[in-house]
Amino acid sequence: MTYGCASCVRTTFDEFAYFYLGGQLGGILYGVKYLYKVVASGFWNVDRRLWRFFSPFLSGSLALVIGTLFDSGVLGLTIKTSANPAYFSIGFIAGYFADSALAKMQEIAYTVFGSPSQRKPTPKV
To answer: What angle do helix axes 84-96 and 49-72 make, rounded to 10 degrees?
Structure first.
């Protein structure tokens, strides 16, 4: 029983789980594609192990946040379907292009909040 809590509904949890899982799969596929390209080109670098490990989690988390922004209407976009494959697809795209999505989010944050280089230094007392 949900006691009137709209965010406690199982279908809402499923939506966000599909966003996350789609994003994680997108991040995994991007990482695998990157891996075989650098191996084939002879640019293999073992130092990127942490990136390979954390990239799918970053992609899944980013997809969850982007899905939440879509669902809330903050981005001015809405999802007009209740089909789980739609949530998964949006998550996948966000996860696969996580680097681009993060760069755009940083650009938006700098526009809204100001970039670190635009901030005036605090005077020392």
So the answer is: 130
